[in-house]
Design goal:
Elements (H helix, E strand, L loop, with lengths): L2 H21 L2 H6 L4 H25 L4 H11 L15 H29 L10 H25 L1 H25 L1 H10 L2 H21 L4 H12 L3 H11 L5 H11 L1 H24 L1
Length: 286
């Protein structure tokens, strides 16, 4: 990622997390953690079932060693930061999405190397600069969220006025980052075989299905878990790939995954929003 794209990515993350803090209260955010059953399913799905799914795909379908390592790293690393852009905008969904993103990202840093170490061939060493990654989480995820919550607590009218332009800024920079990385992602996909790309797509789609099934009775939480589960932590996997697997194509698999995970989630989000709008229209007419 070039320096300018990295800056745009940081702006996207900080403004999006700040916008969430401006829209919700601390009590609402904490209340989303009280559904222990939902959180247990969310964490279990991302840290147990998806790694197992990735392991089975690599074991029973032919892929190159580098592609297999990349897929296993992605399966072991939840907490995709882009997922927050695909969540609904109600308070309930925002609280759950923000809490889930932070928890999965933190657990990903702490546990993904351990999980990946169990999945990868014996003797494979994983290098992860924990200090730098944790600073990233604190500075660009937690701090903007806390600032937004603080402003909301001091003055909800000001927070309401700031939340929309802040959210719009996050959306604009998300689109800019996607466009700027398009060429790199296209090149990565061209490097991989069709069967390897198909396996990545299968992992994404099955992750969405499992997230939808385990998301509970609420449509909102189902949408969020489906998206959050399928959009793995490509940024963390790239750090691991560059430090632990230099001079290989493991990073190419990570970049290809980051390209393929966006279209299905975009289509899924649009479909659900259209369906919701159609469902509400007859009610208004009545």
């Amino acid at each position: 990622m070039d320096p300018l794209t990295r800056i745009f990515t940081l702006i996207f993350l900080t403004t999006t997390m700040a916008a969430i803090g401006l829209k919700v209260t601390t009590a609402e955010l904490v209340s989303s953690l009280r559904d222990r059953s939902l959180m247990a399913r969310s964490v279990g799905l991302n840290l147990v079932l998806i790694p197992l799914l990735g392991f089975l795909l690599v074991k029973f379908f032919p892929v190159s060693r580098d592609a297999g390592v990349g897929i296993l790293l992605l399966a072991a690393a939840p907490g995709g930061l882009n997922a927050i852009q695909f969540t609904s905008k109600t308070k309930e969904s925002l609280c759950y999405a923000a809490a889930l993103l932070f928890i999965l990202t933190l657990l990903s840093v702490l546990l993904s190397p351990v999980i990946a170490g169990l999945l990868l061939p014996s003797g494979t060493s994983l290098a992860l600069p924990y200090g730098r990654v944790l600073r990233f989480i604190l500075l660009y995820l937690l701090l903007p969220l806390l600032v937004g919550l603080g402003v909301h607590r001091m003055s909800s009218p000001i927070a309401e006025k700031l939340s929309k332009p802040m959210a719009l800024c996050g959306t604009v920079f998300f689109v800019v980052v996607v466009i700027r990385m398009m060429a790199m992602r296209k090149q990565a996909m061209a490097t991989m075989s069709k069967s390897e790309l198909a396996m990545i797509l299968v992992l994404i789609l099955l992750s969405m299905i499992l997230g939808w099934i385990l998301g509970g009775p609420s449509i909102e939480t189902r949408r969020i878990l489906a998206t959050s589960t399928s959009m793995r932590n490509a940024a963390l996997c790239m750090v691991i790939a560059m430090n632990g697997f230099p001079d290989t194509n493991v990073d190419v698999t990570v970049v290809a995954f980051s390209a393929l995970m966006i279209p299905p989630n975009m289509l899924f989000t649009v479909y659900e929003l259209v369906k919701e709008k159609r469902h509400r229209t007859p009610l208004k007419n009545n």
